[in-house]
Amino acid sequence: MLSRKILAVVGTRPEAIKMAPLIRRLQAAPGFSVAVCSTGQHKEMIGQVFDLFALKPDFDLSVMQHDQRLSALTARVVRGMDEVIAESKPDRVLVHGDTTTTMAATLAAFYQQIPVGHVEAGLRTRNIYSPWPEEINRRVTDVIADRLYAPTETARANLLAEHVPDDNIVVTGNTVIDALFDTLNGPLRDPKIHKELEAKFPFLDGGKKAILVTCHRRESYGEGFREVCAALSELARRGDAIIVFPIHRNPNVRSVFSVLDKLPNVHLIEPLDYLGFVYAMSRCHFALTDSGGIQEEAPSLGKPVLVMRAVTERPEAVAAGTVKLVGTDTATIMREAALLLDDRDAYEAMSAVHNPYGDGKACERIIASLQEE
Ligand code: UD1
Ligand code: UDP
């Protein structure tokens, strides 16, 4: 039997985390020959994911440049992907999410009339500047893709409202939950690995409540980051909680938040590999973040999330009560964080376990849909 050639494209940390379980399962499924292309939009941060999941890209475009600008990055990815697609001649390209890699790889496939499947399709805020540029990246991708793997019914409804044919949409759950469950039920179950993580992160021993922080969104560069930084300094000064902040490698992030390094109760650390980060999430009191993925993972672990963004494309966990939007205003962040630290009832109301983003079988559903084609 001839196998169908699938080219899976990733470029950044979250794409690699969310595509790794799918790629591994597709490689094991009959009827497919799977090639993996990393655009290298991220370098070290995607390398960590490849190492952890033992993935070796067949193509690596190594496009990352220091403090890269969007137009130049887009141009490098389109050009590089054009060559990879011409050489590998896939029957289908699979992309994920809403990064520049996602949108530019989709365009390159379209220019060679290769069908595109979009994993994590249909997320919307309806505000093209928040998140920026991701809202446009995912819309462009969804216009071109002919297989839309929507993580939730809300995402499906968003696509239907844009007149995407219902037959092209499959509601699958989010593959990040597959990655999370693989990690929780795999390496994190191993007592030896668990002990190593405890030794590596002694400050997560439960002595002081840990606030797990990440922050990187382009629309918050400058003033937004400065407001967040002021809130973190004040939270550290309380003395009854620690800030654990694996800081993104983006120089626009580091230039603002590096001042926190000198403060007591702050652990400003390098980006963690996924195993370390899942461990940190499972040990923290709550997460304070602007990340998309963490909004999806933390509810499955029963951890409240304060989201430092004006809007979110992930309304399901907000509706479930585990995620709250706090924006980047110092006073609002302080007020909501203090509530979770001081008010037991408020904390418990937000810390119930919810799985609005999946049951760990998203990859299975995507593969079943690919097999039906
Ligand atoms: C990108 C995505 C964003 C996603 C985020 C996940 C775009 C436009 N943005 O944002 O949607 O949420 O990844 O983290 O696609 N850098 C390194 N090493 C790394 C990674 C980044 O040094 O491993 C530095 C480089 O100087 C790079 C800069 O960070 O130029 C920005 O990287 P970029 O991918 O453009 O933006 P992110 O903020 O990471
Ligand atoms: N993550 C990680 N190490 C870290 C911080 C985050 O492995 O130090 C994981 C996190 O669990 C989630 C993903 O990275 O799965 C989120 O990536 P990021 O916040 O960079 O991007 P976004 O989700 O906002 O696009």
- By DSSP, the count of extended strands is 13
> For this entry, what is the oligomeric state of its chains?
single chain
- The CATH superfamily of the largest domain appears as Glycogen Phosphorylase B
**Class of the largest domain in CATH?**
Alpha Beta
Q: Can you tell me the overall shape?
A: globular
How would you write the strand order of the largest sheet? Answer: 3-2-1-4-5-6-7
End-to-end distance, in Å?
Answer: 15 Å
Unreliable spans are: none
Radius of gyration, taken over Cα atoms and rounded to an integer in Å: 20 Å
Residues in helix, %: 40-55%
Q: What summary fits the major beta sheet?
A: 7 strands, parallel
CATH topology-level fold name of the largest domain: Rossmann fold
Beta-strand portion reads 15-25%
Structural class: alpha/beta
The DSSP helix count reads 16
CATH architecture classification of the largest domain: 3-Layer(aba) Sandwich
Q: Give the total of domains.
A: 2
Give average pLDDT, whole number.
Answer: 97
**H/E topology pattern:** EHEHEHEHEHEHEHHEHEHEHEHEHEHHH
